[in-house]
Amino acid sequence: MNLTSLTTKDWHARAAAVRYETRHFIDGQYVDSVAHGRFTVVNPATGKPLCEVSAGTAADIDAAVASAKRSFASRVWSRKAPRERMAIMAAYSRLLEDNNEKFSLLDTLCMGKPITDMVTIDVPAAARNFAYFGELIDKMDGQVTATAADAFHYILREPLGVVGCIVPWNYPLLMAAWKVAPALAAGNSVVLKPAEQSPLSGLLMAQLFVEAGGPPGVFNVVNGLGETAGAALALHNDVAKIAFTGSTEIGKQMLIYAGQSNMKRVALECGGKTPQIFLADLPDLDTAVTYAINGIFGNMGEVCNAGSRLLLDRPIAKEFLARFIERGKDMYRAGDPLDPTINLGPLVTASHRTRVLSYITRGKSEGARLEFGGGSPDMPGSFVNPTLFSGVNNRMTIAQEEIFGPVAAAIEVDGLAEALSIANDSIYGLAASVWTRDLSTAHKTVRDLEAGVIWVNCFDHGDMTQPFGGYKQSGQGRDKCVESLLSYTQTKSAWIHLG
């Protein structure tokens, strides 16, 4: 069935029929917590409990890591012939696509993402991740170096061992795919700790890996709170690497945990405060305004690279704001995320809504001008209306701190030099964009922006070849791309004396 043809009534009927698997997935089977603890997952669209999920502790992490360690030591995955692993990854990718409906429902019900976004964006992108990295499995070459005649030297590239993946709630399925796919393709075994707000799709991921032919124990999932299960995974001495996406504050804690344990590798993709620079010579104002609106209000603004700072060249600032206000206040409509016509779901929790609203209050108190939005619609759930501030300067809190909600801050600038100065005046450096019709200006701006991902005359474009990750306190990891795959490996040098 074409999922995009389903109605709101259809989706609610399917949601009512979903049966939630809420235990951990360890060594190829579902198991309850050692301590039998549970925690509640809440549907943010209604504010009502969705299900009770097994709460993992250090004991459950120990069991999952032990399972992953056994599977890695047995070489049942890492030494499987590359073409066989490629076939399993391809079959797995197809299974993800085949289960689009269930994945879409699980993430929508857990974190409020509009169902159409799940069906058309998140699930297909997750499947592409596994297909892409599966295709790279037999492309990881070693190296033979040029040496003296009495020696033969070669370099092997090998998996690390057990990889711990800790992922956020804003893209539960897709962020897990960004970590798990390259880790598995490189031959590692994995323990995934999903966000406690959205744990259900990760469990289905692990189950389907075994159904696709993946050996039990290679892909394990433990639910739980960050301060218990997450910390235990990051501190575990049998984990060779932690791949983390989340807040900068917790990312720093991951580095501390690595130092306190076994000096494990840590790959971080953390916060952002992305500037979108709109210069007076941009190619098309209407197109730029559309990208600006989508860049901050898409996914409810709960995006690490959300384009939250609009740096507007003064000659076009007035007209840009007028068009943004005219279209932006109505382009995103809040409502039931199971309604296929809705493109603005609730924020993930009521407490997060309170946090976002507090930033809006702070913006008004610091002198920014509220153009539209600023509150919540009169409906159940943790919704916040799309919000635009103008008259912002880069010293204001709403221009410096990551809000992680649908709040845009417009800052007027006098040309490129000031735009670059303001854009780089941030602890973050995840992404940025520039709009200009001048090729030289574009290249110079790309060179001078302090960010890991930069778009020219577009926003949030890319494919699997694109490294995704940041500078400064946005972290140092890279997702997607060949570089990501290689980061889950290590090199071994073999020097053979022939004399």
Task: Report what the structure shows.
- The chain is of the alpha/beta class and 499 residues long.
- It has 2 domains: 10-270 and 476-493, 3-Layer(aba) Sandwich (Aldehyde Dehydrogenase, Chain A, domain 1), CATH 3.40.605; 275-463, Aldehyde Dehydrogenase, Chain A, domain 2 (3-Layer(aba) Sandwich), CATH 3.40.309.10.
- It has 16 helices and 21 strands.
- A 7-stranded mixed β-sheet has the order 14-15-16-13-12-18-19, sandwiched between helices. The protein has a 5-stranded parallel β-sheet with strand order 9-8-7-10-11, with helices on both faces.
- Helix 9 links the parallel strand 10 and strand 11.
- Helix 2 (58-74) runs parallel beside helix 8 (226-235), helix 3 (82-98) runs antiparallel to helix 5 and helix 5 packs parallel to helix 6.
- The longest helix is centred in the N-terminal third of the chain and has 21 residues, at 115-135.
- The mean pLDDT is 98.
Task: State the main characteristics.
499 residues; 41% helix; Aldehyde Dehydrogenase, Chain A, domain 1; alpha/beta; globular; Aldehyde Dehydrogenase, Chain A, domain 2; 5-stranded parallel β-sheet
In DSSP terms (H or I, runs of 4 or more residues), the helix count works out at 16
Uncertain runs are none
E-strand count: 21
Q: Give the CATH superfamily of the largest domain.
A: Aldehyde Dehydrogenase, Chain A, domain 1
* Averaged pLDDT: 98
